[in-house]
Design goal:
Length: 248
């Protein structure tokens, strides 16, 4: 494929890489006329100490955590380390990033446009039908607490550009260069669960079973479980919200 046929989105991203760029948990460096990718935790490791991945090994790498748990959200901060990828050109770089962070390169390009295609929570839920219509019923306070819990940096590295109820967007220093332009399917399901729980009596959540904590990947999408990490975070957000003095 001629160089002029390289997509403008990956060309724009490559133009931002002077020496290196941190993209989620992936460190991209200029190397040998192309690029080298590795986990940020391996930034100081010698190349020989890291496994060199072939193209067909990149997608499986992103599917599971280092302990073998499925990664339903590829932007979660639990990408395994101990590998490197040699990308000889921009097309190879685009393919590797597509497997590691699907859609992220295109979203970066769109976010830099004059009018980024950002969809707010209200816009997003207004078009939901069926069992997801209930997500529009959350008031701004509950929707904001739900959003902060689901999109917390413990669970997702995308920088949220959409909002609800005047909540601020994520600061660049809190997340990564990967933007989030609209609520994702995982957040929609979490919002549905929270909408079904509200209103409810507040109180401490049951203790998490042994081996499961708020930061654990175990049961990440099991929103029916009271010890689900996002459920625990939501309880914390609600308690903080309820502790604030009411405006007269």
């Amino acid at each position: 494929m001629p160089a002029e046929q390289v997509n403008p989105d990956i060309a724009a991203l490559a133009g931002r890489i002077k020496t290196e760029l941190l993209f989620g948990q992936v460190l991209i460096r200029r190397a040998n006329g192309g690029f080298e990718l590795r986990h940020a935790a391996d930034g100081g490791s010698e190349p020989g100490g890291l496994g060199l991945l072939a193209d067909h090994q990149i997608r499986p790498l992103a599917q599971f955590t280092s302990s073998g748990e499925f990664r339903p959200l590829k932007s979660a901060p639990n990408l395994p380390a101990g590998w490197r990828i040699a990308a000889p050109d921009e097309r190879a770089l685009a393919m590797a990033l597509h497997y590691l962070y699907p859609g992220a390169v295109a979203d970066c390009f769109a976010a830099q446009s004059a009018a980024p295609p950002v969809t707010s929570y209200r816009q997003f839920t207004a078009r939901q039908t069926g069992m997801y219509r209930i997500t529009a019923r959350l008031d701004d306070a509950a929707a904001g607490a739900m959003m902060r819990a689901c999109c917390h940096h413990d669970f997702c590295l995308k920088r949220r550009l959409w909002t609800v109820g005047g909540e601020p967007c994520d600061e660049p220093s809190q997340k990564s260069v990967i933007p989030c332009l609209e609520p994702c399917a995982l957040l929609l399901e979490f919002a549905r669960k929270i909408a079904r729980l509200e209103p409810r009596e507040t109180g401490p959540s049951p203790p998490a079973p042994a081996g499961r904590t708020a930061g654990s990947a175990a049961g990440e999408c099991d929103f029916d479980a009271p010890h689900n990490p996002r459920r625990l975070r939501y309880d914390t957000e609600k308690q903080q919200l309820e502790a604030k003095p009411r405006a007269e």
